[in-house]
Protein: Thiaminase-2/PQQC domain-containing protein
Organism: Labeo rohita
Amino acid sequence: MKSPMNVYEFLWDNNTDIANETIHVDFLIQMQSGSLQAERYVNFTIQDIHYVLNVTDMLSNMSAKVNQPSDLKIFFKGIHSSYTFFADLMLQQYCFKGAPPIQQTPAMRKYLSFYRNLMDSEEPIYFAVGLLPCYRLWVWLADHLNTPPTNAYYTWKVENMGEHPEKYFRALLNKYLDTPEKVAKANGIFRAQMQNEHDFFLSS
């Protein structure tokens, strides 16, 4: 594998097969049509809150331990701040006073375990790679779901449209994933996290 000029785009382009599989899972098909049972959406949202709270905690850890290089430190501090804001917003929206005790589904347990392994065992740049599938896939799904404004789940589509993860990730990944070996490793991590996203929607 040659090292591509744009690693950020390469990772996505090399794994769009999983994105295309994800948009066809039953949960998203029913969300798009408006026939999704409310209970399924509530359970999905509860697991998503659990995901956000756990990744926020891990980002707090990464922000504290990564001091160099400075651009990577700034990245983790910025993403942690963004996650913290979103986590607080979700807790307020669903009237939780604090982090609720939530039982993980097997898919969510596997997903968060993969994150923890990246945090504990890999160089920080690979934790950044592990974050990217969530950012890119949710924007892509929101852009591609044909959900009309009359649909009860149109809010989910609108809330996830229009984000631009490239402004956080592109320069960083292109700078530090600068050898074929690093790109190959990043691709394996990106693909595993794309599969974890797929499995989260599939199990919802």
Notes: The chain has one domain: 7-203. The radius of gyration is 17 Å.
